[in-house]
Structure formats: structure tokens, C-alpha cells
Amino acid sequence: MKDQDHKRILIANRGEIAARIARACRELGHTAVGVWTDNEVHARHLEYCDEWVRLPGFTNAETYLNVENILKVCKDYKIDGVHPGYGFLSENAGFAEKLTSAGITFIGPHVEAIRSMGDKAISKQIAKKAGVPVVPGSAEAIESVEGALEIAKEIGYPVLLKAVAGGGGRGMRQCFSDDDIRNQFEAVQRESKAAFGNGDLLVEKYIINPRHIEVQILADKKGNTYHFFERECSIQRRHQKIIEEAPSPFIGEDEELRQRVCQTAVKLAQAVDYDSAGTVEFIMGEDKEFYFLEMNTRIQVEHPITEEITGIDLIVCMIQAAFGVDLGIPSQEWISRTGHAIECRICAEDPITMLPAPGKVTGFETNFPQGTRFDHYLYRDLEVTPDFDPMVGKLVTKGILREIAIRKMKVALDGLLIEGLKTNKPLHQVIINHPKFIEGNYSTNFISEEKPQDEVDTSVKYNNIYKKLACIEAKRMGI
Length: 479
Hints:
The protein is an alpha+beta fold. The chain contains 15 helices and 20 strands. It has helices spanning 15-27, 67-76, 93-101, 111-118, 120-129, 145-155, 178-196, 255-271, 303-310, 314-322, 402-414, 425-432, 435-439, 446-450, 462-476, and strands at 8-11, 31-37, 51-55, 81-83, 105-106, 159-167, 170-175, 201-205, 211-219, 225-237, 240-246, 277-284, 290-296, 340-347, 359-360, 363-366, 372-376, 383-384, 391-399, 416-419. A hairpin with a 5-residue loop joins strand 12 (277-284) and strand 13. Helix 11 packs antiparallel against helix 12. The protein starts with 7 loop residues before the first strand and ends with a helix. The mean pLDDT is 93.
């Protein structure tokens, strides 16, 4: 890379995604500038960065969500570009706009794409105009219970009350009758207002036994838009993903359907002149009809499984696209997929209640099979606090066949030892071994219907644990 192409990139995030971005920056010859805060002074992601910068403050509002402070850091440290990762300010159009006005590159899509796709009502209108199928329902926000009842009567029950500005499963309720709407409407409004600062709601048809299918998109500033195939994200708790795989076992060998879904995603991205990495999410019914849900204008947590089956570094491409560098992709046909990849999100949470369980890591060791990738920020003495998302790592396995990827995941989960911290690893072990998962026959209702949490083994396998702990101690002592 020529000297004039060298950039100073601020990573406005933390944890495993910050480390992931830092590695991509260094690969491209850029300077990775990491940030640390007063309540996370020993942040492990800084080990992967070239420079460290303090964001003063203890809360997210004072640090990772403080636009003015981040802009000041950019000015003081001569930053050329900012990568927001996921969460925090990654889909904040105002932040992207202020960076752009200051002459700093936002490593993500242009402001209008963020703004239009960030509003579920507007994005739905854009999708319909582009010929992308959308879930039947209200075209704009519904202001009253009477309006919601009218839409429900038109499209039929069950319906979903859904926050216009929602995400992460918040601001969503299923309704099976008029009484449900009357009882739930104001509660969902309040929840949406509290979570997103916007109480506007949509009313949509609720799809029975839905599959959550999403398509990875990548576009540059030269008008090229590519897809990197689909991911299956139907294993969810509280509408939040915990296991993803690529390609989708539900689509399976139906290449005509696969191409139709992927090309539809490209069509939507082109409709907003998209110019970065992003994900178009669909809901697919049992009849394999699919409908647009939303577009995430950032890199996704589950991007590693797409990288594993395509061999493309999406973070590297995202940085290149932001600075107008050629991606080196000659055509869509050049992008191919090989094998199957599965990702388990390792979270600091109770495996039965699935609620966050903060704690301190007192021991950490791995013994993984070939074909395993673990993106994480774990280390001995790490204090996992309630201040951040409970996800501490992403365990990924790849096999030439799906059954091999599953087999490797079983071994990888068994070989992951996190001492002192309660995690959802036992829940993953139950799900991975469940007949419906093995068959690839599951929907977003899997956890609520199959209740794998009830099968979690809470007994302590003392002999196995003692052996692993002995190995850890021996390693520390250099034996």
C-alpha cells in the first residue's frame, strides 16, 4: 500500500468486534486506534490496536454513545475514518453525518441509506416501490388502537405490533384477537418510547412457524453491489439470535429459491444506492414465500460464518469500500461458497432462564478441532459487567458438509472451558444435539416450543472439570 493510502482509523467500539476490526486495519496497512473507558481500563481489544485513546466516562452515554467526545478525539488524533462495529453508534445517521461534515470517513453506508433503512415504515415503503415483497400490514405508523384493529381486520389474525424504530426483539408483541390489541397497544408504545425514543407502531401479519433468513450484501462507491449468499438465523431467544448457520438448511438445495432471495436483497440495496457492507433480513413462511423485514446498515455479529463459506474478509472489504478502493471482485459469479458454517454466540447468561449473568472469569482454556474459529475477548480475570451486551465470544465451526460442521461444533463446545462465569454453553449443547436442529427443521419458535432450556444438565461433572482445571494450572506453571 502506498504511503498516501495509509489511514488512521478510530474503532468506536469494544470487545471482540473491536479486535476484529483492528486486525483488518493492520492487514491493510492502516493505523488502528482503539479506545478505552474509565470502567474498562484493561480492555483486551487494545492489544490488537496500534494506538490507544481514552474516552473519559463510566457509562455508555458518556463514552461509546457520546458523539461530541468521539468527534473531539477524531480531531485531536488526526483520524481519517471511524469504524463503528455493531451496536452503539453503528446505525446512527446523525453520527455519520457529523463525521462526514468534519471530513472524516464513516466506515459504513452513506447517511441517507442509514436514515431510510433505520425507519421500518420508510424502509418498507422503499422495498414495496422496488418490487421487494413485504409482510402485509400498515404502510405507515398506526396512531391508535382503532387504527390497529382496522388493519388487523383487513389482513387477518395473528398480527404483530411492532415498533417503527425497534430492534433486538424489543417493542414487539403477537396478537391473536381484538382484545389482545386493546390490551397490548399502549404497553408496546411505552416500551418502544423507552427503548428507542419513538413510540410509533406498525401492524403486520404474523407468519406462522417463520424462518429468519438474511442475505449478506457488499457494495462499493462505484455502483457495484454483490451478495454473499444467505444465513439462517432462526434459533432465537427473545427475538435475539443465538445460533446462526450458512447456508440455510431450510432453503437447502433449492438453488432457484436461493438466487431469488439473494437477488431480491441486491435489488433493495440498489434502491438506496447502498455502498458498504449490510444485511437484508427476510421472514420466510413454511410455504417458502419470503418477505422483507429490515435492513441492517452495519456489519452483523454473525458475519464470520459468511466469511468462512466464501473466503472473503468482509471487514477488510468494508474498509476498502469506505475509502473508494477497488474491492477486487470482478463479478457476482466470481463469488462462490464452499461447505457449511455454524456460529454459537457465547453469552454470559444463565443457560436456563437465558438472563444475563455478570461475573468474573477465573479460568479460560480451549481445545478445539480443526475448522474452528473463536472470535472473543475472554481472558483470566475478565470482569463481565451489566454495562454491556452479555455476548463474550462467537464460536464458529466449518465443515465440507453440514453434518460435519455440527459434529465439530459438538466437540468445540465441549473443548471450551470458561471457569467462574456462567454462560449459555450448556444450552447450545442441548440445541446442537436436538433432532430438529440436526434435521435442519426448525423455526423462530424453536426455543419456545421445544424448550431446550428444560434439558440443560445442571449437574457438575467433577472428574472432567478437575482434569481440565489441572491442565490449566499445569500450563500456567510451565509444566
